[in-house]
Amino acid sequence: SSAPVLTIDGPSGSGKGTISALVAQRLGWHLLDSGALYRAVGYAAGVEGLDLSDVEAVTRCAQTTRIQFRAQKGAETRVIVNGHDATDELRTETAGAAASAIASVPSVRQALVSLQLGFRKAPGLVADGRDMGTVIFPDAAFKVFLTASAAERAKRRYKQLKEKGLGVTLSGLQREIEARDSRDASRAVAPLKPAADAVLVDTTGMGIDEVVAKVLAVVQP
Ligand code: C5P
Measuring from atom 10 of ligand 1, which residue has the nearest CA? Predict the structure, then answer.
């Protein structure tokens, strides 16, 4: 497909998920939450009781796990993994850590490439992730890299998880986020880093509307 793509990459808690969904809605474009794919594979591997460091087993898991997104009117999209609605399980920091572990395996990433490319459809795609602008859609016309301080990102994630009724502590969360970020940034394949042609947006202290406006301005100057 030659449909236009806007890539939004950045670390966890940078606001990517919220901003990507709002921007896709405003543009009337499709949305790819690539993190949900890695979370789904990590989750499926857990259900199967796989050793996450067993490269062959997790690769086979990535190749065979069925992942479906079910859009809801006025509510968040549900993620169905092998026929089971795993939306709530996928949100946890445990699922994030499992995702980050399997995401460092090149053959796991390879197994998810064509699935991600398939999201590129008219009238356009907003792609949310870590390597959207660098690896999956390097030819994207619009690229944004969202950042925020680690303290601010931990605070946002804390609020999000608290609202969902999940028991977490702020300090524990900040430690987990920093560990996951450093693993994502230091891995050999598709490390978390801005594409050379990405517009950097530091969202520390910015409100959601302000960030949405900044990102929309990249597509519609
Ligand atoms: O964005 P989210 O927090 O849902 O991503 C979970 C994990 O999946 C990240 O920490 C990262 O390790 C991995 N991921 C990735 N490449 C992407 C999206 C997510 O490696 N494009």
Answer: 100
ipTM of the complex: 0.98
Q: Measured in whole angstroms, how far is the alpha carbon of residue 163 from the centre of its chain?
A: 20
Tell me the angle at which helices 55-64 and 93-102 cross, rounded to the nearest 10 degrees: 110
Cα distance between residue 130 and residue 185, in whole Å: 9
pTM of the model as a whole: 0.93
* Ligand 1 pocket, Cβ-based, cut-off 6 angstroms: 12, 34-35, 38-39, 96, 99-100, 103, 129-131, 180, 184
129 C-alpha to ligand 1 centroid (Å): 6
What are the residue ranges of helices labelled H in the chain?
16-27, 34-47, 55-64, 87-91, 93-102, 106-111, 113-117, 150-163, 170-186, 208-219
Question: Is the Cβ–Cβ distance between 45 and 97 less than 8 Å?
Answer: no
* Tokens encoding 80: 């169905």
- Per-residue model confidence (pLDDT) at position 74: 82
CA of 166 to the centre of ligand 1 (A): 20
